[in-house]
Structures are given as structure tokens and as C-alpha cells.
Amino acid sequence: MREEEIEVAIKVVVVGNGAVGKSSMIQRYCKGIFTKDYKKTIGVDFLERQIEISGEEVRLMLWDTAGQEEFDAITKSYYRGAQACVLAFSTVDRASFDAVESWKKKVEDEVGNIPMVLVQNKIDLVDNALIDHEEADALAKKLKLRFYRTSVKEDLNVNDVFRYLSDRYLARI
Ligand code: GDP
């Protein structure tokens, strides 16, 4: 008997304060591009990318908040059915780091306990870094989250973030 090809689709929400690089991360991962003045495309809810994990085709749908986070008014449809989450903050934005815990709570209030990962983006901006390793490690430990340090600009560790979430998700189903 021929083995059925099972396709798994995972809705991933990328949350965090404005300007931490969420849209850029989605663009980078799904389209392989980085543009400094990327304008958010109105009307596009998500971008997707298909990867293979242990012989299984996994389709990741990465949802972009389209700037709504600034108004604390992300619609329910954004979170609805989310199966994994990236909690992002920026190396050069202290407020974005301080807000991580409240983002985590917000997601959990909407969709419960789903695989999550903590991401410190813009690690290329070494000279302007405001969050050091120890501080970030301590937060990850406190929140019991796997932690990745990325540069979307330089394409550092971005793939690892989504592979990890996919692995975690597949381990659950
Ligand atoms: P969002 O509001 O969280 O979706 O953030 P954006 O994706 O719009 O990014 C905000 C700004 O940060 C843009 O100018 C991006 O080009 C820039 N940016 C995103 N990721 C990085 C990164 O890893 N390094 C640097 N230096 N800039 C980045």
C-alpha cells in the first residue's frame, strides 16, 4: 500500500511591539528578501512557506499584524486557530523587551498553551544593543521558552526559529 502524503499546516502568529522586525522576519522567511523600508501590504493576512521535517511536508502560514499592535487592537481573527507563536523583541528597543511577557499572556488568553519561542532580533546592531545576553537568557528561563537571537537583516538563525516551532508542533500531534 502506498503511504499517504500527509500535509500539516501550521498557523504561526508573530507578535511583539511595533518595529521589532516581525514583518521583515516573515518576508525574509517566506520570500527570502530584506528591504529596509518594506511597506506592509494591506489586505494580506499571511505569507507561507513549505518545509520538510522527517519526511513530512509542513506548511507554515506566518501571520503578520500589519501594524495593528501599535493600537493594541489586533483582531480576534489574527489569533484564531493559532498553533504556534513567535514572541519577538528588538536588541535596540528596551520597551519591546519589557513587553514580551504581556504579549505572551495575550496570546495565551486567546488561544491557550501553544508552542512558543522567544526571539531577540536585530543582533547585527551590536553597537547600539540595549539588551545583553544575561538579561535575555534570564527572561527565557523565567518564561520557560527556547530562545533564539536573530538578525533578519543578515539572515542569521531565522530558519532555526521556524524549524523549532514546527518540530514542537509535530511532537504534540
Ligand atoms: P514590525 O513592525 O515588527 O513588523 O517591524 P518591521 O519588519 O517593519 O521592521 C522595522 C524596521 O526594522 C525596518 O526598517 C526593518 O528594515 C528593520 N529591521 C528588521 N529586522 C532587522 C534586523 O535584523 N536588523 C536590522 N538592522 N534592522 C532590522
Automatic annotation (TrEMBL):
Signal peptide: none annotated. It comes from Saccoglossus kowalevskii. This is Ras-related protein Rab-23-like. Transmembrane segments: none annotated. Keywords: GTP-binding, Nucleotide-binding. The gene is LOC100374067. The chain holds residues 1 to 173 of 234 of the full protein. The keyword Protease does not apply.
